[in-house]
Structure formats: C-alpha cells, structure tokens
Amino acid sequence: MVSVIVPSYNHAAFLKERIDSILNQTFHDFELIILDDCSPDNSRQIIEQYRNNPHVSHIVINEQNSGSTIKQWTKGINLAKGEYIWIAESDDVAEPTLLQTLYNNMTRNQGVVLSYCQSYNIDAQGDVVGDWEEYTRRYEPELFSRDFVMEGPEFIERCFLIKNFIPNTSAVLFRKDAFIEAGCMDGNVGYITDWLCWLKILTRGKVAFTTQKLNRFRRHLKPNVLTKKEQGHTVYKEPHIEMRKAFARYIKKSQLPLSKKIYSRNKRFLIRNHLEQTHFLFQHKRFLKGIEYCVRCLKYIF
Among 40, 116, 157, 289, which residue carries the largest CB count within 10 Å? Predict the structure, then answer.
C-alpha cells in the first residue's frame, strides 16, 4: 500500500484540485493523510469535505503552526500504514497515472528505494508554463533524456551532489523504511531539507527515473528565501553549507558503497560553497563574517 501525505498550509485556492488529482489516480491501493499546519485561509473547510472519503485515513489540523516542513512530513510518516510514501504538496497537481507509474518502477526493479518522474511547471491558474528538462539535463544531457534505474550511491557521486536533481517533492515515491533508516526525521536544514533527505535515502538503494511528465509543479511568482539573499554574481550559500555538513556527518558514520568517493566529492563542494559564501559576504561589506567563513574553509582543505 502507498500512503499519500498532503502537508497543507495556506493553499485553499489549490486544495480541491490537488486532492481530486490524488483521488482520481488509476492506482487505487492507497490511503490519504491530510495535514493542515494551522492555515489562516479556509483550507480547513475544504479539507473537511473529504473526511468521509474511503481513501482518507487521517485528517490532522494543527491548532498552532509548526513552522517546519520536516515536522509535518514526520507526523504523516508516523501515521502512515503504507510501505511506500508519496508526499503530495498541497498546491501541485498529478496526472492520473503518476502513482501507478512510480509504483511500477519501484516494485519491478529490485532494490529501488526512490522513484520519481519529470515535471511540468504550472502557474497560479494551472496553465503549463514550462518544464524541468533543462534543469535536469544541464549537467547530464544524456542521462536525463531517457528512463533509467541506477544505484543510489552512484547517482549521488555522479551528479546529485552538484544540486538537487529532484526539484519537486510531489514527483517522488519512496520507501518508508529507507526514510526512517536513513534518519531523515532528524534532518532540518531549512528550505533544502528535501535535498538532504533524498541524499540520505539514495545511499540505501537504487533510484528509478522516468522522463514522463506526470507531476505539475506550481511556481509562485513572488520572492522566496533564495531570491532575497541572491545579489550580484555570487549566491548566498549558507543553507548549502549546512546541508553538506549534515550529509558529511551521515556519510562518515556509514559503511555504504562509494562512501569514500561521495565524502571526498562532498568535501570539494563544501570548499567551493565556503569560498562562494566568503565572496558574498565581502561583496556586502560583512568582512568579519567573510573572514570567518574563509577560516572555516581551511579545515576542509588541509
């Protein structure tokens, strides 16, 4: 069985379309867990309309905002009865065959712990405005032009340390036991917590990818954490540094395939991110903080 978790916050305008796209899946062996994080809009009224649906196993509405995506994920996974988890973000939309396709790719290939698909971009009105092909192919033009199954550690070492090649959580189906065994419930590095989570899960087995665009990722045209910090030619890298440090600690403790190669490559990215952060801080005349990051960088070089 698949446990579908919808962590919702302030997305009343998109909730009905989202939940209906889950209930209309061609794959039927799933439970639906809806979690609302104390939304100030009328999300609660929309959610309550689905309480008696036979697929809905839990509706949990927080009386106080948790302020944490990973807390909501963890709450849902603790409630989940399924062997597989689909985190379906509350403002995205799924094609009817998404779950069946990801499930087939997961179960027909032994050892797969994470299965995902290519995504469309949609705007606030639900119109397709692009896709993520360029994002995924920029570093690996051949790899992402076809469906593939690959050992997770190889995928990490080859390209996943460069950036998060899974731009949207809603495109992913993963094994619950891999999530728990990898310690994903303990990681929280802000808006890139999902990247750290995928890296950890991918150390536990294989990844399956399909070029089919079965997920519709809604992009909102407003400043986010990254764009507020991004100025000049150098991007603010502190969240990436914290994520890579957390992953380095995880890898150092593990005895998994390619651990040494992954650790070494991650260290090179840590050095690069420290230098980028130093440059960013110097650009903004925060010299003492910039020197601090430069000194921190030395421990990864020597």
Answer: 116
